[in-house]
Structures are given as structure tokens and as C-alpha cells.
Design brief:
The protein contains three helices and eight strands, in the order E-H-E-E-H-E-H-E-E-E-E. The chain has about 140 residues and is an alpha/beta fold. It has one domain: 3-Layer(aba) Sandwich (Cytidine Deaminase, domain 2). The two termini are about 25 Å apart. The mean pLDDT is about 90.
Length: about 140
Amino acid sequence: MNQEEIQIPRKITNQLLHLAQVSPDFEVCGLIGSKNGLPTHCYPIKNSAELPQQRFLLDAGQQISAIAKMRELGEELFAIYHSHPTSPALPSSYDLELAAYPEALYLIISLNTKGILEMRGFKIVQKTALEIPLIMNDD
């Protein structure tokens, strides 16, 4: 888990930031698939949490469909993403409690900034988050 940095294609970064911007009042969420450790596709998934303004819960049916599509394309789960409309890009206690994929990167996009969106990445293992620096590339 001592990974120095993770490269994220600009195209996927822009897609995630756009999804957060078009839903400023609710947490958006989804999965990112990868091939050979490189992120390739974003799979937006409906937030089915009771309070989508404050939490995210991946819609089970859409999550299963996204994972099936990843398998069909030969992809693996790379990241789980969600936005924080009114709080920083840090895992909440709720995020830490429910993190169930220690091998996945958790990306959090914050809209709680002055005009500039923030996206940070974390590995979450046993309710402990370790920030992983993100580097945008043009692949």
C-alpha cells in the first residue's frame, strides 16, 4: 500500500468533475474500470442513499451491471468515486465505515471550494484512509 502516486487520464478526471458539477446538491457516485492498472472507463451509478445530499450508496442493480460490463471488457475495478457537495474531499466516518474494497482507490470530489473543484484519492483499509497522490495524464 506504499504506492507513490496514481495516474488518472485527464478524460476520466474531466468526466468525474463534470458529473459532480451537474449534481451540486447530491453526492454522485460510481465505479472506474481499468486494464493493466490504467483507468479506462467511468461507470456512473445511481446514488440510492436515503440522504443523497450527505451520503452515497451505489444502486445494487447498476453496480452489478457495471461490474458485468467491466468483466465483458476485460477490466478490473480500479476505483469507487463519489462527491461531497458541501464538505472537503476527505473520507467521512461513514465513508470509512462502509469501505468494502481495500484493493480499490476511493476518489472523492469536493464542491466545497471557491470555484475550483478538488479531487483526492485514498486507499481505505480497516477503516483507515491513506491518501495517494493523483497525477493527471493525457492518455
